[in-house]
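Sharing a chain and its predicted structure for anyone who wants a worked example. Both blocks are below, sequence first, tokens second.
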Amino acid sequence: MGHAATLFMGIMVCGILVSCGNSPRPDALGDGTPAMSQLSACPDSPNCHCSEDKTSSAWIAPLIFEGEPDHAWQKVTTLVATLGGEIIVQDDDYLHAVFTSSFLRFKDDLELRLDSANKTIHVRSASRVGYSDFGVNRRRIERLRGAFAAQGQ
């Protein structure tokens, strides 16, 4: 390839990557029901992890807590914001936050669902675009889990 063709290809690749960072919010998060019974299963790609998707390699353990569910929920929602999540939707038992990478502005969606009866907070973190995320979503959940545990019950 000539110099001009190489430059053109480089510009095209950068343009594609930058446009991926501006990807729209997915239409359907959770399972799509008004009173959500569980988070959506992950697609067949390694860029999503979910504690309620037990049939695939996307499974990751939920957050378990002792004590009052309201206290645990308030604690975890504060931690999501502290870790850099922009909270989009938050109610008594569901949270949707967006994390944006500093490089190329890729967006990942984090969802939490409070299961008060079982003292569990289910988690789902997924990239909006691409196939692999180099472990970013799994590490995000583990970082949240570590911070949640460090604050005690």
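Comments welcome. Confidence is low (pLDDT under 50) at residues 5-21.
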